[in-house]
Specification:
Layout (H helix, E strand, L loop, with lengths): L20 H7 L10 E5 L3 H7 L4 H21 L4 E8 H6 L2 H24 L3 E5 L7 H13 L7 E8 L1 H23 L3 H7 L3 H7 L2 H6 L11 E4 L18 E4 L9 H12 L16 H4 L3 H5 L1
Bound molecules: farnesyl diphosphate (FPP).
């Protein structure tokens, strides 16, 4: 986890003048004070993209890696501070043929090595979430290198979810809460049981383990929850991606396959997002808050 990034100060790029004419047309319709602060993307459809062209699947992934760079650069030009991409899941690792997994890892390394300069040119910082310590040492080393090379950048943070699973992340959060509790008790020279009893027993458990604690121990503790989640290739699933963090995110599904997805399409997703009314479990801005419209009258109650 990257606790030190917690309170980072995002620096606006003001680089909208670098957008393509097509992107600019969509951008000019956006409301700039309602830009999403965090966009998460489930990149899907690489295999289908290749299949449609009678190409091997790996060429779809290769083309998909190109899309990553286009999309993150547009995000940085329009000042989206956080972009998180689902690049490789624990399930991908377990359920895909070994040669496809090795290809994806090789592609990731090549992608990082060949794009660090562009990341720096665009003031983009690289980060990762997932059980990345279970990836092979050479992959981890390249990841660390790219993270270090871009660590000083103050613009968009590109987070790659690698060897990631959301249920595993929640399990890891719970484990981390328990580990910290044991460490604290050990440091105070008492048992966990005595420590909790001294704090009021059940009350102490409720105080120590609440939504805030679980969130603070997720891999994403240092970032805001996504405002918008995009999924390409038309599937209407979350696929074990950021289950906790997407609780109130707007979902945008496009039939476009990931290798065909560009900055323009990211901006179209943002435009659709801005057309939504976010309620966070409340009534929303357009609802009539006059309680006589909401609550039943005495007569209606006794009917
Ligand atoms: C889904 O396509 C995508 C993935 C398995 C992972 C995403 C990987 C990339 C975009 C390539 C490399 C990324 C980086 C960061 C270098 P799929 O194979 O499931 O497509 P399908 O559903 O059409 O078969």
């Amino acid at each position: 986890m990257h606790q030190s990034q917690n309170q980072r100060n995002y620096q606006r790029s003001n680089r909208a003048h670098e957008l393509t004419a097509e992107e600019r047309a969509v951008y000019d319709r956006l409301c700039l004070d309602r830009m999403p602060q965090h966009v998460a993307i489930i990149m899907d459809g690489n295999g289908r993209w290749a299949g449609k062209r009678a190409l091997k699947r790996f060429l779809g992934h290769q083309q998909g890696a190109e899309s990553v760079q286009y999309v993150v650069e547009t995000a940085s030009r329009v000042d989206i501070p956080w972009i998180t991409l689902y690049a490789f899941s624990i399930e991908n690792n377990l359920r895909r043929p070994g040669n496809e997994v090795s290809f994806l890892m090789k592609l990731l390394k090549n992608y990082l090595v060949s794009n660090v300069q562009r990341m720096n040119d665009n003031n983009i910082r690289m980060a990762y979430i997932g059980r990345t310590h279970e990836l092979t040492p050479d992959v981890q080393e390249t990841m660390r290198w790219a993270e270090e090379q871009t660590a000083k950048n103050t613009g968009t943070t590109l987070t790659l979810a690698l060897h990631y699973g959301s249920r595993a992340e929640i399990v890891d959060s719970a484990r981390s809460v328990v580990h910290k509790m044991f460490a604290e008790a050990k440091q105070r020279g008492i048992s966990v049981e005595d420590m909790l009893a001294a704090e009021g027993g059940e009350e102490a458990i409720q105080h120590r383990i609440d939504e805030e604690t679980i969130a603070a121990n997720l891999y994403t503790a240092h970032m805001p929850d996504p405002d918008l989640v995009v999924r390409t290739s038309g599937e209407q699933r979350i696929s074990n991606f950021l289950l906790w963090q997407l609780a109130y995110s707007e979902i945008y599904v496009t039939d476009r396959l990931w290798p065909d997805f560009r900055g323009l399409h990211l901006l179209e997703a943002v435009e659709a997002y801005q057309g939504r009314e976010r309620r966070f479990g409340g009534l929303g801005e357009t609802s009539d808050e006059n309680l006589s419209d909401v609550l039943p009258t005495e007569a209606e109650l006794t009917r």
